[in-house]
């Protein structure tokens, strides 16, 4: 059975949704990043980058959520675009927009807004601006069409995983500016598959608090600032 190295955060969650949507049996391997599981030598053999998610499929190992989605999409053959170059050009463009834009900019915004020891106006302004710029682009796309491509697929699952966090990024009034993103989020939230993914965090034990030890595990760069 597939093993999904999982923490209930956006990148692992999109992979879990794909597995649920395709009815693929999988086993959750709790990888609690607040407890430092991502730094364990046995996990680094699977993901040298020390982040969740990672996937083990028999003797095959894949790390990085986008690589895993592509691996599963090609293997299982569902929720992928039609097999012709124009459809793939569109698919890859938006896949990379999500992987290299939405993910990193929202991640840094969360860091500087909620976790950095100092509120740095420069960093907050830059990441809030860039995160909004990316979401505005998604909003424009989803205002024109129900899904990121012609049919519901991998890209929408990735949008869902990040859109769940929008109130944490920008506050709840952000939805006024992102009604089409909200429409897609609500549609996917209503699916039993998405609800099964949300339930994972209640079926396994994950550390909830971000204490000194969690900060050490999540932000090892802070250690260099200590004299
Ligand atoms: N590009 C990677 C990013 C993975 C990533 O940042 N994962 C977060 C959870 S969403 C994580 O494991 N954070 C713990 C840490 O940075 O130590 C992917 O898409 O899988």
Automatic annotation (TrEMBL):
CDD domains: GST_N_Ure2p_like
Superkingdom classification of source: Bacteria
Entries under InterPro entries matching the protein: Glutathione-S-Trfase_C-like, Glutathione-S-Trfase_C_sf, Glutathione_S-Trfase, Glutathione_S-Trfase_N, Thioredoxin-like_sf
Entries under PROSITE patterns matching the protein: GST_CTER, GST_NTER
TM helices/strands, residue ranges: none
Domain GST C-terminal: start-end pairs: 84-210
One Pfam family linked to the record: GST_N
PANTHER family reported for this sequence: DISULFIDE-BOND OXIDOREDUCTASE YFCG (PTHR44051:SF19), GLUTATHIONE S-TRANSFERASE-RELATED (PTHR44051)
Protein name: GST-like protein
Organism, as annotated: Jezberella montanilacus
């Amino acid at each position: 059975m597939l093993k999904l190295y999982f923490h209930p955060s956006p990148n692992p969650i999109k992979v879990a949704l794909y597995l649920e949507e395709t009815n693929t049996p999988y086993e959750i391997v709790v990888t609690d990043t607040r407890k430092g599981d991502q730094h364990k030598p046995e996990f680094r053999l699977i993901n040298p980058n020390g982040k969740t998610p990672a996937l083990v499929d028999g003797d095959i190992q894949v790390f990085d959520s986008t690589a895993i989605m592509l691996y599963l999409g090609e293997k299982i053959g569902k929720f992928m675009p039609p097999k012709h170059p124009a459809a793939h050009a569109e698919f890859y463009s938006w896949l990379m927009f999500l992987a290299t834009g939405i993910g990193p900019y929202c991640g840094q915004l969360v860091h500087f807004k909620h976790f950095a020891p100092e509120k740095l106006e420069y960093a907050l302004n830059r990441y809030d601006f860039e995160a909004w710029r990316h979401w505005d682009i998604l909003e424009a796309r989803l205002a024109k069409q129900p899904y990121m491509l012609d049919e519901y697929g991998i890209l929408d699952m990735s949008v869902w995983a990040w859109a769940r966090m929008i109130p944490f990024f920008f506050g709840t009034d952000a939805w006024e500016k992102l009604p089409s993103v909200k429409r897609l989020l609500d549609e996917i939230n209503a699916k039993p598959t998405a609800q099964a993914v949300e339930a994972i965090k209640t079926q396994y034990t994950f550390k909830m608090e971000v204490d000194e030890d969690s900060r050490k595990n999540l932000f090892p760069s802070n250690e260099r600032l200590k004299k």
